[in-house]
Fold:
Amino acid sequence: MDRRQRIRPPYLAGFLLAICWIVAAGARGGSDDSSGAPKDRGGEETFRNVVRPFLDRYCVRCHDARKTKGGIRLDRLSDAPDDAQLRIWSRVRKQLVEESMPPADEPEPAEAERAGVTAWTERTIEAALARKTERNGSVRRLTVPQYRNALRDLLGLDEDLTRGLPPDALSKDGFSNNAGAMVLSPLQVEAYFDIAARAIDLCLVDEAVRPAIQNFRMDLGRKINPHPCPDRLVLGALSVLLDNDDFVVTELTPSKPFAFTPFRMRTRYEFIEGYVGNDTIRKWRKFDSLDHAVFACVRGTPGYPKGEAFEVVPEGLLLRPAIPGPVVNGIPNTYGPMANFKIAVRELPDGGNFRVKVRAERYDDGLLLELGTPPAPGKADAEAVMDRSGSATLAIAEAGIYRVDVVRAAGARKGKLHLQMDAREFSGELPAEAKPAGAARPTSEIARGFLVARLGAGAHQVQARVDENATLRRLAFHRLDEKSELGRRFVAFERRSPWLGVHVGLRRDCGSTLTRVGEPQVVANDAGPAREYIFSGAINDFPSPDVEPNNVNYLAGIREIAVRSEFTDGRDLPRLLIRSVEFEGPYYSEWPPRTHRNILVESRRRGEPAAYASEVLRSFATRAYRRPVRDEELAVLMDVWRRGYAEKKDFRASLKGALAVALTSPQFLFLIEESDGPQAEDLTEYELASKLSFFLWNAPPDARTLELAAAGRLRRSLNGEVERMVADPRFAQAMHEFVSQWLSLDKFDIVAIDGNRYPRLTREMKAELRQEPARFVEHLIRNNLPIRNLVDSDVLMANDAVAAYYNHGDRSESGVAFAPMRHDDPHLGGILCQAAVLSGLSDGREANPVKRGAWFARKIIAEPPDDPPPNVPKLPEDDGSRLTLRQKLERHRNQPGCVKCHSGIDPWGLPFEPYDAAGRFRDATVDARSTLPDGTSIRDLKELKAHLREDRMDGVVFSFLKHIATYAVGRTLSYAELESLRREARKGVPGERHMLDLLKLVVSGDIFLKK
Structure:
């Protein structure tokens, strides 16, 4: 009997029926159909005698079932409109007021006719808006990210068990949490059962069995291994092995407050194929050494632009930033960055959490100068004249910043200089030096700038060695003023810190599989000793080799732990010194682990199976259901447990079935707002707790929110809870989902960028730019800034890479972390200029004003264009002449059926024309003029922003309120709700409305609080 059969007894069919019923109820629950409301008899008569004849005479010929121009039918409109008809009546009213319909070539109604129908339409819409809206509660399934977060918070599992679930569909509003779009398929239900079984198996352990723990450390440093492995180790593709005597691997026994079994790695192996050095194995070879189980290499070292990519020094391994691989012929390199230090490991745990502890520090480094830098003018402040061994004593009179020039004989060959000053080591390329024309003596000298470093006063021991037998005569030291150009450059370099990152994956010759473990950590910029930096993850969330046991290929089945100095923006960084890397897994701080203790709670009744099972299931279900479990719900769970216990007499095994029922129940998988009838009701405190946390955290409520709900004080404390949740780190994961879907950033994810045209938009850069919009909106809300910043802001949320992409790298010193950064660039600021948005609204080669205009109308001012008619032709090809994109659009608009849609799209998109398909401002000479739909003439995006700030901020406020409210409640808003938000958006000075205040407005309104 397999695992699923064990936890899926026949009476779980009742839960499947409950899910099906509750999904159907959810489809009814969000209804806003108010067609049953009492009718105004006078209005009905006016409709029959005046309005209906007017529509038949002037409108229906083009808007009936046969033609349906613009997707609009007017032959079915009634005098008591439901929500769908209200939207059509609103458009009819707009056309009547603007006198834009009927078209000029059709009969025109008299002014009196038009006025009468307009007045009736306005009264009918106002009456409909005044009607009370039916609610009937609501039910919606957790999205995949919400379900993943709920499992993590409930069980304490770091492992992601949801990777096999199908992605959530997007509703017509663009959001994945819309109840109407969240179909629950039988395959998904089956997946929930499998996930529940695996999750419980991972959480519960046999307390009597000692865990096996693997723990080893690799220490790094020049010649630190007194007994290096005598064998030649493996040289993988594009890799350089560390010398065997430059690292030591030690298996450790960690100190734990519980008994465990140390896992010792296998050392004896026998292989018949693979590569050792450059020699192909074609016969059986036996190996017996821990060094064949764990060894070290650096991949991607050729072509590093400046200095050595890595260098082993007595204290450890020095790493320069891991530069992303180059883009060749539009295709990004798949081998990983240059350079990429990796520990190859044959054995790691099959599952559980792991911890990598890196002992590292910022190296007291010098700034390498560009190859061939001319010598400093004037006389040197100090010199080091090398003896035959390459040694010298340097006397520095005054502490400070010194430039080091290398003096060689004319005609010296190209080579690498290895320079040591006291304990510090530096290396870099020296160019070949041609003899000056007419040089009379072989003793003529040429000096080149090499390094800038800070030196203390006194004597310094200097050693210099040059490869390729090049001649080095002396070193000249020039003291720099900190305010000089090179002095300022060094001071900026000295203030920077490397960022340490850990990655885990598997060994491959044809690409990189390494996946980041947690977030990079900044390495302390001080003179203190090395510190420990800890990275944790779940081993099964990272790529594994999945090869058969005892594979006879030397390189098969190897996993890798990579340690990097993470790339920021290409500016010089002090090197990262890695002293040691330690791995421990599965990692437990206690036994049984926290996941086990969270379920099997402490109790005095552990010796009474039924009583203890009831306590365990009550505790678990209360946390899973995000409210106190009801007696009838607990009875179902206990019934499952009793049946299993009667059959197996195994308390833990029978408990798993009941726990699986809780994890696959509607109470856990759905957000349920129960209703007694169609009238609007207040959310209960617990319903409010879940709705609020899944909105602002995309995760379940924590203990604080549930305590307020239990005490009946959550509604009264709503503003404070919103502020607390927004300040919490979990707010970022909700903003990532909301902003990504609001701004349609999935388009950026899938657009195929032409790498030849836009080589800077690499895979790594896309990952950084993808974060910018969500981090920006998060910043505006957390700091309660005015909403005008959405469209125009003097602050970017950027890290070093993003700032450099916009050519402002010199203004950012935040490394890989996003931070607010002031700018004075007229082509930046606000979400309209962000590369992730603009590049996603292109075809990867050229900008697309139609896509950008339609996006702007939908997302920024909430005036979505009509759906295009069927069979829309492509832009016409040039007829022998080179047409601008503007001219092509004009030709396209002039085709029948195109002009109406494009009149509400193209004017918004044309101001974006100077921004290329990579989302960067490219050319100020591009014609970006436009006449907006309201008749305003603008010259470029800067003037469009000004127009929005001065005249259209109520539309921007309404759009933000509409989208965040739709996301918050997980359904399409009714016409009446949208109109209430539209009226709210017009209050006060729209541009000065503050973002957090607007979010609170949504949460404190009936749209959110009623069911």
Summary: The CA atoms of residues 60 and 75 lie 6 Å apart. The radius of gyration is 35 Å. The chain has 30 helices and 36 strands. Confidence is low (pLDDT under 50) at residues 1-15, 20-39.
